Structure formats: structure tokens, C-alpha cells
Amino acid sequence: MKNLMILFSMVCLILAGTQVTNSQIASPDEIRFYTQEWEGERFPDGRPKLPPDLMERLKNIAIEEAWGVLRGEGYHNQFAGEWKMLHEDQPFTGQALTALYMPNRPEYADRLLKKGHEEGMKGASNSWPIDLLTEGDVYVADCFGKVVDGTLIGDNLGNAIYTNSKRGVIFDAGSRDLEGLSKIEGFNAYVRGWDPSYLTEVMLAGVNVPIKIGNATVFPGDAVLAKPEGVIFIPPHLLEKVVINAEFIGLKDTFGHMRLREGTYTPGQIDGRWSDEIKADFLQWVDANPDQVPMSREDLDQYLKGRTW
């Protein structure tokens, strides 16, 4: 019966278009299966390749604004919060390279380590996700919330992470060497907690596989937005919608607050559905202040076609 269940699971994956492997590191075909909604470019490892300009603009988006768009699309489990951020004044973005850790099972851990070395990986397995990072990646790891003896990195690995990715880490786990990590200029971390212990009784079970971070489900290639209140993980196919929607709300608020201070309109006019007169005034203001508009006018016009204001 057990062998039949295993065979059935493999057949289901193959029929779904996923290549079954024995490696901890997901194949490009597996990642494409996870991220089928993405229709754009991909990295060689199969993860969606998100536009750098959208990722840069994402830094200016409020968590609440991104959360609202995702909830409207049916994504209710993309936010993780109430943890500790290394530099609260330095929000960061990037694309998720995921890692799944599990409590150690010695015979399996030995096999995984041997297989990884046969496939060309070097050293201890907790360094393998770091070796795979490229610029723009955020190392996102699920280590089942372990802090004591669950410190995935210290300042040595922190330096290696920043060298490869120029970003930081999101850990459902602990970290050590807070003082040393804080000296790595540009590096940031969002973790469960800090502890001086070393990583023990943990094994790497998967890289670039779906993982759980707090209450959030994270897929490889998700856009990451980390701010003091928490981290939100945005499915790649929704990134543009999240950014443009949030930017429009910001523009609308800037214009509305300005006109309220001037006494041009009443609060009821600004808070309610805008009249054609206010809409026209807003668009004239947009044209007169291009430095305050983060998106192109073409993108704005396209976005406005689907809005009722």
C-alpha cells in the first residue's frame, strides 16, 4: 500500500507537468509548476524575473496598501509580522530564494549531504542556499520558528549573503552575531529572534520550494517587501497591480490633501466618489507635476480605465 501511495503521488506530479527529482534543490520545471501564472521572463533556475524598476518602486509602497490589493485578489496569507528587524529604518525588497529546514533525522541528513556533494555543492548544507543567491535575491528560510540552536547565520554567512545578493534575509528562525551583522552596510534581516547559540539538530530539506513564514505561504520568486511592521510576499503575477494601485492611491491622497488645505474642495467631496470636475483637476495636476508621478502616463491611463474613482 505504501509503495502504491508513493507511485500515485509521483504520477500526479508528472501529470501536473512537474519533473520529479531526488535533489533538495527544485528544478526549473518544478518552479514553473509553482508559478504558472507568471508569463514573463524567468531566471535560469526557473524563478520569475521581475522588472527591476517595479522592485525599486515597491520600496515606497505601504504594507497596508499591498495587503489590500492581495486580499482583493483572494490572497489572505501573505503577511508575517511581530518579529525583529535588524535596521528598522531601512526597508528592503527583493525576490525570494526559499529554503526549507526540518528537525534533524541523522540517516536522511547524511544521505542528503552526500547527494548534494555529488551534485557539486560544497561544505555544510546550510551554506548551499547562500551559494545560489544572485543580486536582488532575499534569502527566505523556514526553520520551524527555532531560535535557540536555530541560528541560521552569523556575521560570516551574513557577509557572504550580502556579497551575493546585495540584500538581506527573512528567517522563521533565529540569527546570531547581531552586532557583527549590523556592521554590514546595506544588509538587513527580519528574524524570529537573536541568540548566541549555534545551529544544531537541523537539516536542509529543500531549496526553492514553497515554505511557510509565520502565517504566510511563500513561493520561490515572490516579491518581498520588508518593513518594520512585517513582511509581505507578493506573487509575481500581481506585482505590477500592487505597485500601480498603491502609487495611484498615494497620488490621489497627495492631491486630495493639497486641495483640502487650500479649501478648494470639502472633505465630503474628496472622501466620496470624485466628480468629473475633480477628476479633470487631478489629471491636470498630474500633467503639471510629472516629478511626483512614479508611473508613466500611459500606465496611469491604462489603470484608470478599470477604476470608478
Rough outline:
elongated
Return the domain count.
2
Radius of gyration: 22 Å
Q: Give the distance, in angstroms, between the N- and C-terminal Cα atoms.
A: 59 Å
**Amount of helix:** 25-40%
H/E topology pattern? HHHHEEEHHEHEHEEEEEEHHHH
Instruction: Kindly report the CATH topology of the largest domain.
Output: Glucose Oxidase, domain 1
| Secondary-structure arrangement, i.e. CATH architecture of the largest domain | 3-Layer(bba) Sandwich
Reading off the top of the CATH hierarchy, the class of the largest domain is best stated as Alpha Beta
Contiguous low-pLDDT stretches (5 residues minimum) are 1-22
Number of contiguous helices? 12
In total, the number of strands is 11
- Estimate the strand proportion: 15-25%
Largest sheet: 9 strands, mixed
Average pLDDT rating: 92
Counting helices, strands and paired strands, the structural category is: alpha/beta
CATH superfamily of the largest domain: Ribonuclease E inhibitor RraA/RraA-like
How would you describe this protein?
With 309 residues, this protein is α/β, with parallel strands linked by helices. It has 2 domains: 183 residues, Glucose Oxidase, domain 1 (3-Layer(bba) Sandwich); 65 residues, no CATH class. Helix content is 39%, strand content 22%. Strands 1, 2, 3, 4, 5, 6, 7, 10 and 11 form a 9-stranded mixed sheet that branches. A two-stranded antiparallel ribbon has the order 8-9. The N terminus is likely disordered. It is elongated. A hairpin with a 2-residue loop joins strand 10 and strand 11. The N and C termini lie far apart (59 Å). The protein is built from 12 helices and 11 strands. Helix 4 crosses helix 9.
